[in-house]
Design goal:
The structure is a homodimer of 171-residue chains. By secondary structure, chain A is an alpha/beta fold. Chain A has six helices and five strands. In chain A, strands 1-2-5-3-4 form a five-stranded mixed sheet, covered by helices on one side. In chain A, α4 packs antiparallel against α5 and α4 packs parallel to α6. The longest helix of chain A has 12 residues. The first copy, chain A, is globular and about 45 Å long. At the A-B interface, β1 and α5 of A face β1 and α5 of B.
Chain lengths: 171, 171
């Protein structure tokens, strides 16, 4: 009898709220143990986490084993309206996302709704999306818990603060 | 005074319910006139529509002008539970999606919820996603009008009926 192939399950379990944002950039909720093999399946090179806590051991070990680089720009995940999001952290995170040498990269927080939604909204703003289109997407991932203050954060975010190396800009 | 650049608007208007499904495959609701320039911006090579009606003139002219090939697998868009979806049409549509020579390709129906959701669900099944992950995604795009019968269609769909040319399978 063949031993089971632990690296290639019969079914794949992407993390909750998983989606491809734009070529090279994915988004999701926090990857649990059950989701890890899928991250390898899509050949991730990097993970950008917005949670401030240390990674669970299973995640850290998996990333190390598969050469997945972890970028951590921790933002507090409180239940308050998302007004205290530190803009400098978002600027740093955007610089990482806008460097295609980090791609394919997965952005996540806990649920993939609010912190991730704010960051992805800023990427869309840089891509020139209209505000309605940005909010349509934000709400799809955060429903039924969409926050007006998140959408306001995106609307007020000054994209000119995001300075990045044009040579490595994603296409 | 410079003439306005009609091809490069200041803001982009992706169609409603727009998303990247997997590298090379996009999904959305019906692209209106306002959305057309964005389709060119993302360098679409093909559009796969699930609506049976002829394309509006503005769409047809835009696709012809930009060399975007239209594949039409019309499925009735009635308000009944989605039990009458002709499986052969879905099989044909999947063959087109699974040929990377058509990529980048956009799948759409009217709202990008039910018909598109069924087709994308079948793609996920071919990709080996677990049924819960497929339903999570289906519901994100169809909320608050998710249909159990759509999800049942996906669950019962026999992927062995989809025969395609392995040489052109997307990676």
């Amino acid at each position: 009898m063949e031993p089971p192939d632990l690296e290639e399950p019969k079914e794949w379990y992407p993390p909750e709220n998983f989606s491809l944002v734009t070529p090279g950039i994915y988004r999701s909720g926090f990857p649990s143990k059950k989701n890890l093999s899928y991250l390898n399946k899509i050949h991730l090179r990097s993970i950008l986490t917005l949670v401030p806590e240390p990674m669970p051991e299973a995640n850290a070990a998996f990333y190390a084993k598969h050469g997945i680089k972890l970028y951590q720009y921790g933002v507090p995940g409180n239940k308050e309206p998302f007004v205290d999001i530190p803009e400098d952290k978002i600027v740093e995170a955007l610089r990482t996302l806008l460097d295609k040498r980090t791609h394919p990269i997965l952005v996540h927080c806990n649920k993939g709704k609010h912190r991730t939604g704010c960051l992805i909204g800023c990427i869309r703003k840089i891509q020139g999306w209209s505000h309605i289109a940005i909010c349509d997407e934000y709400c799809r991932f955060s429903a039924p818990k969409s926050r007006v203050l998140d959408q306001q954060f995106i609307e007020l975010f000054d994209i000119s603060k995001v300075v990045y190396d044009i040579r490595f800009k994603p296409s």
